[in-house]
């Protein structure tokens, strides 16, 4: 096996997996906290949750359905109108 492949498997792959798990946790934390936030914070939380969940859907079988539900809950069509003033 080439050295770069060994290094990828031993060093980078575990970091990527840890990052994915933590991003999933962030999405779930934002979802749980959403109702406790003020409107401006809700807007930001929804945008971040949709962005992260969208990236993670399909890439993690165990969480796919939960992430899809969160993504659908906060997708652009369902976000409150943000003031432009």
Shape: elongated
Mean pLDDT: 88
What amount of the residues lies in strands? under 5%
| Number of domain units | 1
Please give the radius of gyration in angstroms.
Answer: 16 Å
What are the low-pLDDT stretches, counting only 5+ consecutive residues below 50? none
**Class by alpha and beta content:** mainly alpha
Number of strand elements:
0
Kindly state the percentage of residues in helix: over 70%
N-end to C-end Cα span: 59 Å
Secondary structure tally, helices: 3
H/E element sequence: HHH
Main sheet makeup: none
What features would you describe in this structure?
By secondary structure, the protein is mainly alpha-helical. The protein has one domain. Helix content is 71%, strand content 0%. It has three helices and no strands. The protein has helices at 3-33, 39-56, 64-74. Helix 1 (3-33) packs antiparallel against helix 2 (39-56) and helix 2 runs antiparallel to helix 3. The radius of gyration is 16 Å and the shape is elongated. The model has no long low-confidence stretch (mean pLDDT 88).
What are its keywords?
single chain; 85 residues; mainly alpha
What are the SSEs and their pairings?
Elements lengths: L2 H31 L5 H18 L7 H11 L11
Helix pairs in contact: 1-2, 2-3
Task: Briefly summarize what is shown.
With 85 residues, this protein is mainly α.
């Amino acid at each position: 096996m080439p050295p770069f492949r060994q290094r990828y498997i031993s060093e980078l792959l575990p970091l990527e997996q840890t990052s994915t798990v933590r991003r999933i946790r962030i999405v779930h934390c934002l979802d749980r906290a959403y109702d406790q936030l003020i409107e401006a914070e809700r807007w930001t939380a929804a945008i971040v949750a949709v962005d992260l969940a969208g990236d993670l859907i399909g890439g993690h079988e165990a969480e796919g359905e939960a992430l899809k539900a969160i993504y659908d809950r906060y997708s652009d069509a369902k976000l409150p109108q943000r003031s432009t003033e």
